[in-house]
Design goal:
Oligomer: homotetramer
Strand content of chain A: 15-25%
Number of strands of chain A: 19
Radius of gyration of chain A: 21 Å
Shape of chain A: globular
Number of helices of chain A: 8
Strand order of the largest sheet of chain A: 1-2-3-7-4
Order of helices and strands of chain A: EEEHEEEEEHHEEHHEHEHEEEEEEEH
Structural class of chain A: alpha+beta
Chain lengths: 375, 375, 375, 375
């Protein structure tokens, strides 16, 4: 019930504040015998999310070097909890007294004080509400991904991309997953990525910030994952993505656009597949029907609001109820959405592994029985 | 972990199939001493969701009369589990053998078979995946609402509305909550409601169906509800709404539109309120910052895809992998989104009560200490 | 978190008061495709627990006829929640006003009022705290047992017995499981059973009551069940048995006697088994090492205090704080421990299935790999 | 569901192996604003459990210095997760290859291999199954105790003691809580403590080991804690204590002895108290009725088997199924039960705080309404 854990059968718990000595997580329920190495399996994903990798993200420098302190022995998971820790090295000794009682617009400051009481919050760098916590989601997601690859084989993948920054969307005709690795925006459309350089630079120079829309896609997952009513796969994905800092919307498959469609255009027709199973003509459903995976790619999108920390002054209030003006100095992402791509991937991987383990429990060796499932 | 329960401190578990003898739920964690009467407190909400109330919803006739079998004594809750049951009276003895092995496009049939194995599913009327299950969400929500009103007083409300059917959106300038009760669409815009009569009639006559977008709003809630990381209030709302049948997207406050905004236009400025607390100029955040309520109205929207059961034939496959054509006969909603308004309200009420109880546990009599919180 | 559910992957939730219209439970997480029939699979176990079966148990007459309302289709489980209901038929219209505000010694009356507030408790027949609730444990256990038999085959069994009533213990040299079915005490020692007739009759005639010690044994379970630290198999068994009404102690294997042993006599030696696995010389551990099953019989004992409802008057207090004298009239068990045998069996079966499902989830088709495990 | 967390509203998760780089825990759900300092509030309890404090416990030297890495700011809890870490400093570089595939009698080795698969276990010093994990229970318990003292005031206490070693019980007439701090056995009877010196020395010299029975008592707790059916306070206490390494039995109040009593001697009579509430004549119930606290002292006992690691050789098997003889060298406790006293206290404190938070959530400011509750 306490709010710092995610998942059921595969479950991680995160801890740590932005400017405390370290952040960390405990990953519980990981199957045993999976090869796992922090440098090889975790660090590449953490490096993607890391600040300071291009001029389009915050220049805060954190090596974000993850260490595994338990649960791995002689290079393989043992089935016991995996503790991951990252020391906070860039805790600048700046003076936070100014902001300690300020409620920055768009930030969690006011809400935390309402929840926990005025005066107990660790205000340094956003404390617990800092996006720094998401490094631990990436670490847990990296473990989940390793296990999923081990169980499902090389056809499994989970990938994230940015499909819109500000008002500028990609052209889906240009979609190229390889391109995502080639530009600093996780953008699958090379032309859009070029336009975004100017767009993001411009916002940064204005002291403003931009929102974004991201898309995460998992492929090679079996049909049958998800509980039918309250642990629906899409419901858990929605919770997972909405829990990421600054996310304001989540959709699966056609999402909000499905509201504008007519029934005959909204549901994926099925046909016998060459392998004797089921093939879908389309993927309007985004890989989920009735809350359960169909074996098609699981496709989810989420919207990230513009960075709250901007140089442009905004009216606000302090903990004493006095009117103030807030202008956030320091190093900030002009578009926090960009770095959300590896975080979205990670959360999706965790949801999928959690449900895979639960489904194995329910069906045991009978499952999977339907290999019709890959469309 | 099993997937038929929702909530933590206030928790309900539903059971039952569309054409079984009954459906029901068990509501656990309800505070004691709250007056509760099935006819007065549950039935009005169930009647709103009930089929057969207008020509725009399915004509299946179910009185949907809820009985309370436990947890209430001499008219008040005792703190023990509240069991609610509705007998299924309209179980027509039609022949389901034709559809028993068919996978209807857009329905959960194929996914259930993948999950549970071919041949065990209760296919009659959709079985467990039927929208009939949502009656129990409405019952649980009605209990939550009663408790919330009892704790928070008359300023608390949770209301749902339909803001778009097909491509036709309401005009927000016309918004009138009273209007929602006056038309069969839960529409707050009288003019849109008139247009929708024609729109929905037309879809029904074509044997097609329409999607919809709904908006649910809770007012009079205290600041401080929500766990900061994985039990965020908006994350739980997203899970709650996405778990409703046919929902494909959820957004909070500005939602997807926030991606197109710039930082200075995306975050709600604060000012000292007349009462010495905090007032917000706007509500872009939809009442949640950092996953915690701000005391502003909580505003969420969700998209419902068009009804899957349509008269227009669609290509599909049966459990033997043979190509078939599916055309759903029988009584169906031309727009299932309409009846989702009371369901969305109910789920929102459950999430709020769950977090209210948890926050009381965390803070005890210290809380609420910040009545600055109502903007 | 709410307190009326038990189990994780296999989970049941009970509801209902002694004198309400019905009691029931919802069983979630049951694997699909298991043949299940209320009359064949549930009723025999309920009948064992049922009042009125001999002069040594309460004469309250409840047919306790269980109906399954969901989750079973064409004779097999579907994987969706199984709702079980028993109507309360023996709700005598006696006047409870006398006891409505009395705190009966040894009963939950005072504690319920402290928890829920004075005046909201359903005091009729003990309300929610009545042992009647345990009928639903037996129903859930019967489902668990059916699934376990289906997965583990005929070598699996779970059996309960009474090994002590008052100060009179059985002679273990006389142990005969067949005898348990032949006497009204679930006693494996025919001679002890004969003595107990006199003993229990005598207590009943005195208006007094007796305590008991029970032993439950599960055989044919695989090694490897149980989470190592907080979901230890023995920890869950302890919680399960201690949650039964009137239970005051639980032990596994040697239990409290192990405190008096020396190390060389307290730990089971192992030897290569004929089948190439591991055989244990003894079973001091009761089938659990480090919280995980060893494949040996799981042996647990629990102590049940004497029935609280006795004819002998006792000093007490009412809800107004006034001194009263309480003498419980009506039909009561002279030794509630007797009827706890089928309840203990049921709880043990639920714990085992829960962990079996979880272990399948963790290991998938790799497991069981160690069939050395049956000693 | 994963097995390394304990508690619901107040919840801790432990990680770490005996010979890994560190062990730790994450404590979630801690109320904000509580003063907390590792050296002052945690270390004294850890020092009690620490090895090497007398010749009667293992001589392994671990300073067991706990550091708090998060959740505390400017000396007070913030409501966010509290991460505690202890580095493992005494990881002797001894050669474990001999025992890496041996199944030591009484140890978890065989069961772990059955659960996780042969060859993945961290066998060094028992790995995850080492009693070293219990240091983190003590840390979590110390936090719980601090919060309980803060909420309940100085009348609250939780204390543990050893009441039997081997066959030698204390004389309850000699009970003196102050004595517990004065001898190396946590023994409340000075005379027994003297006898135990000889007893334990003798077992150590023989290369053998002894079992023990412990008693933990919490005083100053309000009536009304505990969920009535499956989250019963005594059921949770049973799970908590049974989860401690080497524990084989748990009892509350009269425990197993209650089986031998007659009804008129087994239930605590009540009388009006001087303060207008309820006073109990006795405490046979151990402070719990119907699973809910009565306000009387909560009294629980648990049995700890003799240390499994002994110098006397025992027959066993290795992972290849070959017969071996095991003789555990190294530094071991002659009676592990001794150091279980602070662990039992800690687990009891965690259970009580968890239920206190839950009860506050259920009742809010209405509670406690019954101060009749302290007998």
């Amino acid at each position: 019930m306490a709010g710092n854990s995610f998942g059921e059968a595969f479950r991680f718990t995160t801890w740590g504040e932005s400017h405390g000595p370290a952040i960390g997580c405990v990953i519980d329920g990981c199957p045993p015998g999976i090869p796992l190495d922090a440098a090889v399996d975790l660090q590449p994903y953490l490096d993607k999310r890391r600040p300071g990798t291009s001029r389009f993200v915050t220049q805060r420098r954190e090596p974000d070097e993850a260490k595994i302190l338990s649960g791995v022995f002689e290079g393989r998971t043992t089935g016991t909890p995996i503790a991951v820790i990252i020391e906070n090295t860039d805790q600048r000794s700046r003076d936070y007294s100014e902001i300690s009682r300020q409620y920055r617009p768009g930030h969690a400051d006011f809400a935390y004080d309402a929840k926990y009481g005025v005066g107990v919050r660790d205000y340094r760098g956003g404390g617990r509400s800092s996006a720094r916590e998401t490094a631990m989601r990436v670490a847990a997601g990296a473990v989940a991904r390793k296990v999923l690859n081990s169980i499902l084989g090389p056809t499994f993948s989970v990938r994230g991309s940015v499909v819109q920054i500000g008002k500028d969307q990609i052209d889906r005709a240009n979609w190229d997953w390889n391109e995502v690795e080639q530009n600093p925006f996780f953008c699958p459309d090379r032309e859009a990525a070029r336009r975004w350089e100017t767009l993001v630079d411009s916002a940064r120079k204005d002291g403003s910030s931009l929102g974004a829309i991201l898309e995460v896609v998992a492929e090679g997952i079996p049909a049958g994952l998800g509980e039918p009513i309250y642990g629906k796969l899409d419901s858990d994905v929605a919770a997972a993505l909405m829990s990421i800092n600054a996310v304001k919307g989540v959709e699966i498959g056609d999402g909000f656009a499905s509201a504008s469609k007519r029934g005959e255009d909204a549901h994926d027709a099925m046909r016998p597949s060459n392998s004797g199973g089921v093939a879908f003509d389309t993927n309007y459903a985004g890989g989920v029907l009735g809350g359960i995976s169909t074996g098609q790619p699981l496709v989810a999108r989420f919207a990230v609001k513009p960075t709250s920390s901007i140089l442009i002054p905004r009216p606000s209030v302090d903990a004493d109820g006095k009117a103030i003006e807030v202008r956030t100095k320091g190093r900030h992402d002009p578009c926090v959405g960009i770095r959300a791509a590896p975080i979205g991937e990670a959360m999706l991987a965790v949801v999928l592994l959690d449900h895979l383990i639960r489904q194995r429990g329910l069906r045991g060796s009978e499952w999977p029985s339907l290999d019709q499932s890959r469309g």
